Amino acid sequence: MPYTKVNWADGVTPENAANLGRMDQGIADAHALVPSAIPAVVNGQWLKGSGGAMVWSAIAQSDVTGLSTALTAKEDKANKGVANGYAPLDATTKVPAANLPAMSGAALSYDGDWAAGTYQDGQVVVKDGIAYICVGGPTTTAPDPVPWGGAVAPQTYAAFFANLVGPFGTAVPTASDGQPFSVSATGDYLITVAATAYNPATGMTQIEVYVDGILVTTLNLYMSAAMSHLAGIPKSVLLNLTTGTHRVAFRAIGTTGSDSGDLGWFQGVPWLSATILGGGSPVNYATTLPASPVDGQEAILVDSVTNPTYQWRFRYNAASSSAYKWEFMGGAPARSDVQTQENYSSTSYGNLATVGPTFTLPRAGDYLIDFNAEMFHSSTSPMYVALKRGAATESDNDAAIAQGAANYSFTGRRSIFVAAAAAADVMLLRYKTGAATASFRKREMRVTPVRVA
């Protein structure tokens, strides 16, 4: 008979043959829904439908839509970093330089850090934290802003005036004519010229400007009928000049309403001038100073280009008789502090539980070391804070010494000039007491360079 559901209720629905029969019928109906023949389990295989029946079978690629296509297109791990394969990635998710293609001729080629050798046009290297591209190779010269095609090192304004009084004539200036000026490095220079001249006539006068006997630009000077002098708008021209002495000269050409023979000063003032301005490059900012500096070059030395704790600006003085030609121009001192109060009981110099303050000098040279510490003692015994210079033994001569009433706090302070320190010398504060136990806190060191190698 068909199954009829019974809503059972405690103490109400009778437990009789009719209701129990309905339960038996429900079990029979459910059993009828199960296939009469379920295949026996086969380990390692999957149950799937085939031809309307359930069978145990291994899963084939064709059973998964798109799997065969995806597997065919995959890249095998064995092809990583090999010919006709694919490039690997380093720990920073970048392709290593060794896996980049090498290029020749004028094409760019990154060669990593500079090393002594011969370089061709287009090769790119890194030196002293600066990337350089070789221009005008082959070259064995170490890269710096001049021979590797960059802008020349910063130059000083070289301004001068040419007192040119007519008559000028029509002769073209030669390479030996005119006012001399010098440049210390090959590069691009901006030459600006201006003129004011006297001429009784009305009209226009042209002034030709020559550098080393070569015409580089022309000034046009205009005069109204009511005035007896000429004035021209300054003009500038960019020239590539080699290291050494050059000359700038002028020639006046009479044109409409003027006569070159009548040109002269205006109210006694020299009327032609030229200003030479050397090209400049950004100040070097790196954890080391340029290896091949030129006189007057500036650079900023830091301990980190991403998060520096000090920035020291230097200027290179080639005329200095010192071995330390990079002279300090400005910047905040490097600092090292230990604020924690700690005790010391020895009458010989030593370290506190927290060593320092300490600072490692980045370059050989002369430095100014300022330090201070707050200290107190339960008795009237002296307390010492001394500077230890590199491998040398500290002494009382380099110490800040305090002594006074018991249990009073004193601040010892010293400023010490450290001459001819070696690169990587460690400046370290050390301590001792005259007797018993002394306490030290708020220990601070400041390091300022004077000049370095």
Descriptive account of the structure:
- The chain has 453 residues and is mostly beta strands.
- Among the domains are: 158-278, Sandwich (Jelly Rolls); 284-330, no CATH class; 334-452, Sandwich (Jelly Rolls).
- The protein has helices at residues 17-33, 67-73; strands at 46-50, 53-57, 109-113, 123-127, 130-133, 158-162, 179-183, 187-198, 203-211, 214-223, 229-231, 235-241, 244-254, 272-278, 284-286, 298-302, 311-316, 326-330, 334-338, 342-344, 358-360, 365-377, 383-389, 399-402, 410-421, 426-433, 438-452.
- Strands 15, 16, 17, 18, 19, 20, 22, 25 and 27 form a 9-stranded mixed β-sheet that branches. Strands 6, 8, 11, 12 and 14 form a 5-stranded antiparallel β-sheet that branches.
- It is flat.
- The model is unreliable at 146-169, 225-230, 255-272 and 276-281 (pLDDT under 50).
What is the general shape?
flat
Q: Please give the count of helices.
A: 2
Write the H/E string, N to C.
HEEHEEEEEEEEEEEEEEEEEEEEEEEEE
Secondary structure class reads mainly beta
Low-confidence stretches: 146-169, 225-230, 255-272, 276-281
CATH fold annotation of the domain at 158-278: Jelly Rolls
| Helical residues, percent | under 10%
Number of E-state strands: 27
CATH level 1 class label of the domain at 158-278: Mainly Beta
- The CATH architecture designation of the domain at 158-278 is Sandwich
Tell me which oligomeric state these chains represent: single chain
Strand content: 35-45%
Average of pLDDT:
77
